[in-house]
């Protein structure tokens, strides 16, 4: 298959402006990907995401597997069609939510047995099953099944976890190669689902290196750095990303999972990260926290009760173009659902706007 | 002032197609008015209401008085500006919510003392105070302070309640005449806030008649039939509306408060009611009940789990144009906030669509 990533410009600092051709969307990178956990970016309609310029959104395999079920989504023609999202989609492997949400998790060589956080029912995920579920969902990009190493973790624990992640990556890729034509929208001529690997290794630089090298040998379509944003200090996140990026092939997309704050996503993009996702803009929005060009605003604070300024005077999103801080504060105080919608629209616009500016800057720089 | 209502066509059955010029919007009637209790039609952004063709929405005086407070809204330039709604607004008098929501309600000749349902604080509403609050909110149409008669009510109780409503209407009107220029957007040349009276009288036709005649003598800008949808059978609602409508001046708008189901709003519009409001389309939407051309759908039912049809195949609203029943059912099952938004958009489109068709029909009929 033709390479799907074209680097348009690279900077001395390692940053790159690139273009990633995915089956449902040509994605301009670096890109921020809003998270649509259960097949919806919480409180934001799909048409609004399109207006805001979202090129690719995430779905969570663990959540969609449990509800409504991947077989149902397969019968509905895949996740794009089920949720009516025509642009690109990425699903994670389920590994992170199995680690963070499920109960009674039991990891064996073969896979993970866990109980659903919804109803306590018992489930078993193997690499093969994770890929099968993800093929049913039919995102543009799917992830190899990994074991997320907790933080802090002893070296012995990180090594054991890493060993599983590498073995599972190999099995994931083999299953993917054998089954990707089963994706609901398969088109042998022009469109091919992509499978990325997840680099683990905890906070041990040499383990990260070992993992990256081994996974690169396996020749995935792209590489993600996982196991970050699990409670470690930010300097450590930066250090791990710095260690790993130079080990990754220049012609494949690089994805850092689950980050971050606005300044972080800009920083990592300038270092050469192509893709990032985070629940922060929408989760913070639901807790009345707005990211703005003037810093963070806790919009429920009394100081905004009569503030007729837009949430962010430098922003031209649909929320900032129409509504005042005073009104948003009222909506939050009154427990109105419109608060989550309007706050989420702004925070997503802010994140997507940062990436837009970073792309312009990376395109112009040497 | 020039008459604000122009009847464009009247039918033998009493129905009329008219045009009501209000300060912020020329309203084509019969009109359905979505309810924006706390300064927001729950879960639906203002821009979407405009797209759906909403010409006028309601605000609830009781709620807005308690939170964020009418003086705050006055300082913010009135409710239109505070919530960023450029079209027409109507506020109720607060009487209905004092009756239905507050605790320890004590009615005297002068007014009503009640405790807030939010924090138990004590408040006193008089006709003068209700009008003052409504002038601060600054809707296009405000309502005289009334006492809502409960159902069932003895004749003695209905008579006493009616006596208060009539006395309070007179005081409301006097206060309105003395103070309407205090509305935040006052413009003596072209724009004048309107004050409607509320006809009470319980389910006693002769009391309703007595009330209507007395209020018409007072010469309000319009007349509302209140105290309906309080638990009475639908035949009785119909009977009261039928009794009262012929008593009302033909050159003034007629408003039936708090109704109703889709077939009801059509029925009453064809009888000559110009304005109606109801929380039903949005409240039902939040409980997963959709009104469609094929009847009511409880979209959370299992039968819709794999139904790829739009919620209403005959509807072209943003929800029906993009999403399937299966997806809406999933959103409801997953407790996603987008469910309330998409369901509300459809139900409002359905209600507004009924009125659009009734207007076209009334324009063409003899």
Structure explained in plain terms:
Two copies of one chain form a homodimer. By secondary structure, chain A is an alpha/beta fold. Helices cover 41% and strands 19% of the residues of chain A.
What string gives the helices and strands of chain A in order? EEEEHEHHHEHEEEHEHEHEHEHEHEEHHH
Mean pLDDT of chain A: 96
Report the β-strand fraction of chain A as a percent range: 15-25%
Query: Alpha-carbon distance between the termini of chain A?
Result: 30 Å
Structural class of chain A: alpha/beta
The Cα radius of gyration of chain A reads 20 Å
The spatial strand order of the largest sheet of chain A comes to 4-14-13-12-11-10
Assembly classification: homodimer
Main beta-sheet strand count, sense and barrel state of chain A: 6 strands, parallel
Largest interface: A-B, 37 and 37 residues
Say how many strands of chain A there are: 16
Shape of chain A: globular
The unreliable regions of chain A are: none
Which percent bin holds the helix content of chain A? 40-55%
Instruction: Quickly count the helices of chain A.
Output: 14
């Amino acid at each position: 298959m033709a390479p799907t990533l074209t680097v348009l410009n690279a900077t001395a600092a390692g940053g790159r402006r690139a273009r990633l051709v995915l089956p449902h969307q040509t994605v301009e990178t670096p890109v921020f990907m809003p998270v649509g956990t259960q097949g919806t970016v919480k409180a934001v309609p799909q048409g609004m995401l399109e207006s805001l310029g979202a090129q690719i959104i995430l779905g969570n395999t663990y959540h969609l597997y449990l509800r409504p079920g991947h077989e149902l989504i397969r019968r509905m023609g895949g996740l794009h069609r089920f949720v009516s999202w025509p642009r690109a989609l990425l699903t994670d492997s389920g590994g992170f939510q199995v680690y963070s949400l499920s109960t009674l998790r039991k990891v064996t060589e073969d896979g993970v047995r866990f109980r659903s956080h919804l109803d306590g029912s018992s489930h078993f995920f193997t690499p093969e099953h994770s890929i099968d579920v993800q093929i049913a969902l039919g995102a543009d990009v799917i992830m190899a099944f990994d074991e997320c190493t907790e933080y802090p973790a002893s070296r012995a624990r990180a090594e054991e976890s890493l060993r599983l992640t590498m073995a599972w990556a190999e099995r994931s890729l083999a299953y993917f190669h054998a089954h990707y034509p089963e994706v609901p929208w398969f088109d042998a001529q022009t469109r091919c689902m992509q499978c990325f690997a997840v680099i683990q290794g905890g906070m041990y630089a040499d383990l990260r290196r070992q993992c990256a090298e081994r996974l690169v040998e396996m020749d995935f379509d792209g590489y993600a750095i996982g196991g970050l944003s699990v409670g470690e200090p930010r300097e450590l996140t930066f250090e791990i990303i710095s260690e790993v990026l130079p080990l990754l092939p220049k012609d494949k997309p690089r994805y850092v999972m689950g980050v971050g704050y606005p300044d972080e996503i800009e920083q990592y993009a300038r270092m050469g990260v192509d893709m990032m996702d985070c629940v922060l803009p929408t989760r913070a929005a639901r807790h009345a926290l707005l990211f703005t060009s003037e810093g963070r605003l806790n919009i429920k604070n009394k100081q905004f009760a009569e503030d007729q300024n837009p949430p962010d005077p430098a922003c031209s999103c649909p929320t900032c173009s129409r509504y005042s801080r005073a009104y948003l504060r009222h909506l939050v105080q009154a427990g109105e659902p419109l608060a989550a919608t309007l706050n989420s629209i702004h925070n997503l616009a802010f994140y997507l706007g940062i990436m837009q500016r970073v792309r312009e800057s990376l395109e112009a720089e040497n």
